[in-house]
Amino acid sequence: xxxxxxxxxxxxxxxxxxxxxxxxxxxxxxxxxxxxxxxxxxxxxxxxxxxxxxxxxxxxxxxxxxxxxxxxxxxxxxxxxxxxxxxxxxxxxxxxxxxxxxxxxxxxxxxxxxxxxxxxxxxxxxxxxxxxxxxxxxxxxxxxxxxxxxxxxxxxxxxxxxxxxxxxxxxxxxxxxxxxxxxxxxxxxxxxxxxxxxxxxxxxxxxxxxxxxxxxxxxxxxxxxxxxxxxxxxxxxxxxxxxxxxxxxxxxxxxxxxxxxxxxxxxxxxxxxxxxxxxxxxxxxxxxxxxxxxxxxxxxxxxxxxxxxxxxxxxxxxxxxxxxxxxxxxxxx
Amino acid sequence: xxxxxxxxxxxxxxxxxxxxxxxxxxxxxxxxxxxxxxxxxxxxxxxxxxxxxxxxxxxxxxxxxxxxxxxxxxxxxxxxxxxxxxxxxxxxxxxxxxxxxxxxxxxxxxxxxxxxxxxxxxxxxxxxxxxxxxxxxxxxxxxxxxxxxxxxxxxxxxxxxxxxxxxxxxxxxxxxxxxxxxxxxxxxxxxxxxxxxxxxxxxxxxxxxxxxxxxxxxxxxxxxxxxxxxxxxxxxxxxxxxxxxxxxxxxxxxxxxxxxxxxxxxxxxxxxxxxxxxxxxxxxxxxxxxxx
Lengths: 333, 292
Hints:
The structure holds two protein chains of two kinds. By secondary structure, chain A is mainly α. Chain A is 77% helix and 0% strand. In chain A, α8 packs antiparallel against α10. Chain B is mainly α. Chain B has a single domain, classed as MetI-like (MetI-like fold), CATH 1.10.3720. In chain B, 68% of the residues lie in helices and 0% in strands. The radius of gyration of chain B is 22 Å and the shape is elongated.
């Protein structure tokens, strides 16, 4: 009796210490994350400042007089020292006002808003389709480890994993959009102002591209972690106890395998965000990726800055989540 | 080698070649190396053997295959086979160059960070974190629009995009050795840090380096081809596999070969890189599937 209470006391203080250590670790990571994003914002600002072309001249055209150019520069704050411009911009971003587009004159927030919702919808639908599929594929392959189905899975997922997004997308267009069995639209044009969810067939190919690109990787991770869990001691114990295979898989193995998969899913979400520029260009989809390409072409600095910051921040945060979720221990160690 | 005798490293010299032999005995690695070499040979020799001038129109646009043009013609009536043969050379030298540069610098940073520890480690790895916040393609888009699509810039940017991930992995692989007997011994007898890193630690991380090189080669091909595809890499009218896919997209329903042919070669190249990585990972006993 006494020993039992003693051990439980030890356990609680141990758990408390572990929780405190974990708390400190998370706080430190959070601080690091904020600092990293700050450095990222400086880099983005400097890089966009280096883009060739005089903004005032871009707006006013070649016929503008020097006086008008100078006046516009003052109006846009381009005459201020660079660090002042950066602080103004950062202040605006933090207040939720990243400025106005140099090309359309509209607030950047308005221009980015719709496109961002479209991109998030695309990525969100892709993740929603991908997660159950990857889980199903990974677990089915793991349960038939070494058999024909498993080898088939390993081969195809390896190829899909190695193939760049634009190639996967182009193959899908050939297969389902234009040539072999044309049942889906090869471009994802949306009527302005309408949600992509109202036009599911239009977004089917871009979604499928992202699902294959990220899902192949995720399914392989599911397979490995499921195999790991199934060969662990306590599953062996459950088998010896005579529990049914179903019960072992669904009640014991799957929840544990999921623990390892969740950080990976966050990583895959980051990969999806990175792939969105190419996929949106390929399917002419009106999201932030294609907005970025348009604004780079027209030298629309405030829009470029906002979009790059959004993509980099979400990419970083998802990666960061993956790192932090991975058991709370520093994966970099 | 003037390492004092009696060092705990004696007899370890034969280890690296043994590892290489073990890698090459793996069927996966062999297939991967074969694919990469075959695509590279095709891309390097192709430009010398093109049946037609890859820049000149020889027929109407999107002509279907016939005896003279076995792969048909492209959006401007140029011979697809000639453009395919001439269009891999950029990828064939730029991707390995970027992978070598990226893996080399990443490995150096990872090893130094693990070996020195403390503030050096913190500064180096937090810098890598900042670089990791950019998807490679974003980074490339910005800098290519600043400087223009120069080959050296494309290589440099791709290398920088590959570096941080590699630095993390190699740092992790190096850490267990920083407190090992032979490193402690090297420090004790006052070997220069460079000597310890190159002579003692490097031979022990050759296996993860091999895996890293395979992955990073695959990613380099993907990134460079994607950049060409969206118009920020090799510029038209130069023949290039990534560019060919985007040039001939509008003719897909009439002449799919103009898109499919370069796609096949890009996939052979990236799959080759991935096979090297996976095979090597399996040889050193890392779990399958964790490659990316």
